[in-house]
Amino acid sequence: MSKHSNKEKDEKTNVMRLLDAAGVAYVPHQIPLGDGDPLDGVTAARRMGKAPDEVFKTLVAQGPHGEHFVYVIPVAESLDLKKAARAAGVKSIAMLPQKQLLPLTGYVHGGCSPVGMTKPFPTFFAEEVVLVDTMTCSAGKIGRQIEVRPDDLIAYVGGTVADLTVS
Predict the structure, then answer these.
(1) Burial of 12 (0-12, 13-18, 19+ CB in 10 A)
(2) Per-residue pLDDT for the chain (167 aa), expressed as one digit of tens each?
(3) How deeply is 42 buried, as exposed, middle or buried, from its count of CB atoms within 10 A (0-12, 13-18, 19+)?
(4) Which of 49, 81, 112, 149 has its CA 20 to 30 A from that of 124?
């Protein structure tokens, strides 16, 4: 491994610094990035040696009046927009256009974390999160993940557990 790779591995992301400051325990993971191959969540889980139901993706949606909501669901699952709207208490939601993600959250597609967005948004965790001892999600950079106890992360972001995925 090159010196750059070691430095990259040891470098803390903003997500990690925020969790450190709050006293939230986590285990950092670095996912080996392939040569230009897309890194979807299931591939990321496999590269970390994790089951896809232990690895979660962070999605951002917009409500009918311009309000924003964050959804954290297992990487192999799909967000049910009706269930997600119901959880948020709005009539409907639509996925945030990708070009709006960075200015709104401070994160790029593939590196979005429920921790440390530019401002707090109502955050909902798929009910599947109660089935795992630890969950892994983005550490705010593509290829960087954190493994954390679900209760700790939900409490830290002020999240709510709800039925969110397509049955």
Answers:
(1) middle
(2) 333 334 444 689 999 999 999 999 999 999 877 666 667 888 889 889 999 999 999 999 999 999 999 999 999 999 999 999 999 999 999 999 999 999 999 999 989 999 999 999 999 999 999 999 999 999 999 889 999 999 999 999 999 999 999 98
(3) middle
(4) 49
Give CA–CA dist 59/95, Å, rounded: 8
SS3 131: helix
Assess contact for 56 and 115: CB atoms under 8 A. Answer: no
C-alpha to C-alpha distance for 162 and 124, rounded to whole angstroms = 6
User: Tokens standing for 14?
Assistant: 């903003």
d(CA 29, CA 102): 23
